[in-house]
């Protein structure tokens, strides 16, 4: 279904979205993850966790990765280890950013294994086997893979990160660090709040109008023009990547709406902030 207001954008939406493209995987330790269909035959491993297979009680049940929402640090550490064990990496090597809804991108080297980067929403690397991770509960997971330079990047993009270009900032960082050409990149947009669920106030619309080209295509008003808008974060990120040079056919959107999928994913909006955070974990493998 296309919610954009212009016919050309609706057509573009159909080109970009690969409905139900993610694969759901149950691991032997009870952890359930999703993988991106477009990366299945690439030299990169990427996994999005669900809320299943961890040790945290309600309201974070069960695979929660946040220590800032009241859960015990020991349980969160156990959850991180369970997720890492399920997908086959050492949890002590995972690199994180302290996410602040910004556009800062860190270049990660092998020597950074296990590091937390301050005030950082984007991470890039060309180090084989070095796992990068981000956490979410409605915000958009964006992953970029360069199969030519064998480089990886990703970011956390909430509405602020989206309108300020966090995804494109990550792409630019890969260009600067590794010589990545946008036309050669594969992009994945993971589970996040969808266009039929994400009602926003006028301040979000105003910021988008100030920052994004042709912003009207990313908003709809199902309850009338005098009511709040609904924001399509999926297309706002995808169209920025297209404008930056990534072909639409090389962008996968999971089309999983976290606010309507709380059986599998945490949703800050749907659960009124009483929830945990799920994660995306990705690393480069040997060619």
Walk me through the structure:
48% of the residues are buried. With 287 residues, the chain is of the alpha+beta class. The longest helix has 15 residues, at 73-87. A hairpin with a 5-residue loop joins β1 (23-26) and β2. It has a single domain (7-284), classed as CNF1/YfiH-like putative cysteine hydrolases, CATH 3.60.140. Strands 1-2-3-16-8-4-6 form a seven-stranded mixed sheet, covered by helices on one side. Strands 5-7-10-9-11-15 form a six-stranded mixed sheet. It has a three-stranded antiparallel sheet with strand order 12-14-13. It is globular. The protein is built from six helices and 16 strands.
Order of helices and strands: HEEEHEEEEEEEHHEEHEEHEE
Looking at CATH, which topology would you report? CNF1/YfiH-like putative cysteine hydrolases
Are there runs of 5+ residues with pLDDT below 50, and where?
1-10
Give the termini separation: 37 Å
The total count of strands amounts to 16
Arithmetic mean pLDDT: 93
Radius of gyration: 18 Å
> Mind telling me the CATH class?
Alpha Beta
Structural class by secondary-structure content: alpha+beta
Helix content: 10-25%
Major sheet: size, sense and barrel closure? 7 strands, mixed
Strand order of the largest sheet: 1-2-3-16-8-4-6
Supply the number of helical segments. 6
Oligomer classification: single chain
Overall number of structural domains: 1
């Amino acid at each position: 279904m296309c919610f954009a207001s212009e016919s050309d954008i609706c057509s573009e939406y159909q080109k970009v979205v690969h409905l139900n493209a993610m694969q759901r995987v149950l691991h032997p330790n009870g952890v359930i993850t999703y993988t991106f269909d477009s990366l299945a035959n690439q030299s990169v491993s990427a996994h999005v966790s669900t809320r299943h297979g961890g040790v945290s009680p309600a309201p974070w049940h069960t695979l929660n990765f946040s220590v800032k929402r009241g859960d015990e640090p020991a349980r969160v550490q156990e959850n991180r280890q369970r997720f890492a064990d399920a997908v086959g990496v050492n949890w002590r090597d995972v690199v994180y950013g302290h996410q602040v809804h910004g556009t800062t991108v860190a270049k990660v080297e092998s020597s950074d294994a296990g590091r937390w980067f301050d005030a950082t929403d984007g991470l890039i690397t060309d180090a084989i086997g070095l796992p990068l991770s981000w956490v979410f509960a409605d915000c958009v997971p964006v992953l970029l893979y360069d199969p030519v330079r064998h480089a990886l990047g990703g970011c956390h993009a909430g509405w602020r990160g989206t309108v300020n270009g966090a995804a494109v900032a990550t792409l630019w960082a890969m260009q600067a660090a590794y010589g990545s050409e946008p036309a050669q990149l594969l992009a994945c947009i993971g589970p996040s709040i969808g266009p039929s669920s994400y009602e926003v106030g006028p301040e979000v619309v105003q910021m988008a109008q100030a920052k994004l080209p042709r912003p009207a295509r990313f908003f709809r008003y199902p309850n009338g023009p005098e009511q709040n808008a609904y924001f399509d974060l999926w297309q706002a990120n995808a169209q920025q990547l297209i404008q930056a040079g990534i072909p639409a056919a090389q962008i996968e959107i999971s089309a999983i709406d976290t606010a309507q999928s709380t059986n599998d994913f945490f949703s800050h909006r749907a659960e009124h902030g009483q929830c945990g955070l799920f994660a995306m974990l990705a690393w480069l493998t040997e060619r």
